# Entry
Amino acid sequence: MTDTTEDRLEQAIDDYLEWMEAAGYTEKTRKGYKWNLKHFLRFIRHRRCPWSVMFTLETLTWFQKVTGDAHTHAVRGLARYLFAQGEISQPIARRNAQLSLAEIYEHYLTYHQRRSQAPLSKIKLIRRVLAALEAYLQRHSIELAQLKIEHIDAFLAEFFADFSHNTRRTYRSCLRGFLSYLYHERRIIKRDLALLVVGRRLYAQAKPPQFLRPHEVQKLFATLKLSSATELRTYAMVHLAYFVGLRPVEISRISLDDISFRKAELSLRDRKSANPVILPLPEPTLKAIVAYLIGGRAESSSRRLFINLRAPYGPVTSWSVGYVIRICIKRAGLCATPYWLRHTYAQNLLESEVSVFEIKEMLGHDKIESTKSYLHVHIKLMRKVLFDEEF
# Structure
C-alpha cells in the first residue's frame, strides 16, 4: 500500500470523526470510534490493503479475527460515510442480507409496505429496528402482550447508544408505526404505546458553529499563492467555500455549465437538501475561477469545473476538495476545518442583516432550525440589540 493510500484513509477517518461531531454524536461514542478506527488504520498499514478492497466484507472479517467484534461497527460506519460521499462504490455488505423475524414482525412489514407503498430502503430500515427490538425482548423474556412503556424506554436507551439525534428520531418513527399496529390492528397490547415514544427537546445546540475572525480570514488568504496550476485551483476552491459558503461536495460537483460569467451567477442543482438554487458570485470569486480556467485547468472532456492535475484529468472528489482546503488552513497556522469557512459565510450574511429565511436557501438547509443555529454566533447583533452599541 502506498503512502498516498495511507494518507487517504487517515484523512477519511479525520473527516468522518469531524462529521460525527457535527451530526451530534456523543463525545464518548466519538472517542470509541476514533480508538477503533486507529486500530483499523494500523491493520491496513500492516496488511498493505489497497483502497479498492479496503472496505469489503472479506477485509472486515480479516480485521475482525485480529481485533474482535467490538471494532467492526466503527469501520462499517466509516464505510457508510465514504459511500455517501462517493468515495467507495458500496458500503460493506452484511453477512445476512435480510434478517429473518418472527411472524408478527413480518406481517407488520407486509402490512406497512402495502398500506404506505414504502420503498425497499424504508422497509430495510424498519426491519433493522424490529430485529433489534425482537432480540431485546427475547433476551429479557418479554412477550409482546406484556409490553410496557418501561420496556420500550429501556430498549431505546440501549439501542440508541451510538446513534445521532437525527438517526434516533428516524428510528423512533419506525418503532411508533409498529406499536400503533400492535394496538389498533392486532389488539395485542392494551395501550397505544406509540403516543409515549417521544424524544427529548433540544432547546439549544451544545456547541455552536465555529467560524473565523476577520484577522484569521486575512491570514488565510495572505498565504494563498497564484504561481502554479495547483495554487490557482486551490485559490478558486477556497473562494467558493468562503465567499459562497459551499460544502466540499458542492464544490466538487460544480459544472462549467452551472456558471454564468455574464450574470456572475452559480446554479446549484445537486445539493445535499435537493433544493436547487442560483447564487450570486462575488467579483473576487469570479476572478479566481477565471484565473484557474485560464492558467490552471488542463484540457479535459469532463464538464466539471475542478479536475485532477494529472491525466486523465477526471473530476475531483469531495474528499480531495476538503483535503486541499484543510491543508491551506493548516499552512496558515489556523486550528479550523473547511466547514468553518461555510460558517463564516453565514456569520457574514447575518451581520449584513440578511434574513434567516434567505440564509436558509443560500446554505441549502432542509429546516429553518439548522439555519437558526448560526444565530448563536451573531455576537455583534446581540450587543447592538441589548446595549444599543454601534460598530
About this structure: The chain is about 60% helix and 5% strand. The beta strands are 259-260, 265-268, 277-280. Residues 3-84 form one domain.
